[in-house]
Amino acid sequence: MKVKIGITGASGMLGTALVVHLSKEYKIFATSRSKGVEGENIEWDCFNLTNATLLNSWLENVNPDIVIHCAAIVDVDLCEENINLATALHVKATKVMASYLDNNNSRLIYISTDSVFDGKKQSAYNESDLVMPLNVYAETKIIGERITQSICGGLVLRTNIVGWTQGSCISFAEWLLKGLTDGMPLNLFYDVNFSPLSVYDFSHIIEKIIENPVFGLYHCTSKDGISKYNFGKKMAKIFQLSDSAINKVSVANMMFKAKRPKNMVLDSKKLAKDIDYEMPTAVESIISIKNQQTMRK
C-alpha cells in the first residue's frame, strides 16, 4: 500500500514541485485554494486551509501518513498589514494539523523560512541560534515551528527556495529572467544575503526524509550564501544573458512596510550529515533551475 502524503499549498512553486516528484512513488492528496498539476496518484481537494472544520474533515477523509505543510503567506508586507490572516494560516491551521497527526501517529513536515533571525550575525545561522523575528511573517512562522516541534512526528525545515511557478504568481527567479531577457531595470540588493535552494533539489531531499525520517529542526538550504545582487549576476551568466540592466542597490533605501533581515544565510551541515546528502551551492541551484526550464520547454 502506497504511503499517503498530504501536501498543502500544493499549487504553489514548492507544492507543485513536490506533487510532481513525489507522485511517482506515493499517493498524493493535494490541497490549495485552486487546483494545480494533475496526474496519476494525485487527488485534489480545494478549500480554505484556515477553515478548521474543512481542514479537519480533509484530514479525517485522507488520514495521511505524512503532511507536508507548504502553504504560507509569503508576501511579508501583506502579513504586516493582516496579522489575523497570517496567524490563521501559519499558526491556527498548523495547530489543527499537528493535533490530528499527533493523535494518529503520523508525521508533519512544516516548511519554514530563513527570515526568523534579525540578520545581524556575520556568518551563517545554525539551528542553535536564537530566533529574533523582525516582522509578523517571521513571528507567526516561528509559532508554527514550535507547534510542529511539540509533536513526536514533527519536522521543521527552514529554507529559501527558487524555481518556476505554474500559476499567475511570479517567482523571484522568473522576475529576474524576464527582466534579464527584456533588458528591464533590475534593482538587486548587494547587502541582502541568502542561501537559495532549487525546489527540485528540495524535492529530492524531502523524498530522502520520507524514506529515512528525521525529526526536530533543520536548515535546508544551499551550502553557501550569496547576495541578491550576485545571484542576479550569476543567473545572467548561466542563462547567457546581458547583466547590464542589473542595478546594485541597498535594501536600506527601500520603503517596505515590514522590516527584513540582511543576513538570511543558513548553515545546512546538520541536515546534510543526518540524511547523507551533498547540499548544492547557490550557483548549482541556479544551474538546477536552468535545467528544469530546458525540460519544461
Quick summary:
The chain is 40% helix and 17% strand.
- Helix and strand pattern: EHEEHEHHEHEEHEEEHEEHEHH
Strand content: 15-25%
**Structure classification:** alpha/beta
- CATH homologous superfamily caption: NAD(P)-binding Rossmann-like Domain
Number of strands: 13
Give the proportion of residues in helices: 40-55%
Described by strand count, sense and barrel closure, the largest sheet is: 7 strands, parallel
CATH C-level: Alpha Beta
* Inertia-based shape: globular
Could you say what the CATH topology is called?
A: Rossmann fold
- How would you state the average pLDDT, rounded? 93
Query: Unreliable segments (pLDDT under 50, ≥5 consecutive)?
Result: none
Radius of gyration: 18 Å
Widest β-sheet, arrangement of strands = 3-2-1-4-5-6-11
Give the SSE layout:
Elements: E1 4-8, H1 13-22, E2 27-31, E3 42-44, H2 52-62, E4 66-69, H3 76-81, H4 83-103, E5 107-113, H5 136-149, E6 154-159, E7 161-162, H6 172-182, E8 186-189, E9 193-194, E10 197-198, H7 199-211, E11 216-219, E12 226-227, H8 228-238, E13 246-249, H9 269-275, H10 282-296
Parallel strand pairs: 1-2, 1-4, 2-3, 4-5, 5-6, 6-11, 7-10, 8-13
Antiparallel strand pairs: 9-12
Top keywords for this entry?
two-stranded parallel sheet; Rossmann fold; 7-stranded parallel β-sheet; alpha/beta; 13 strands; 10 helices; 17% strand; 297 residues
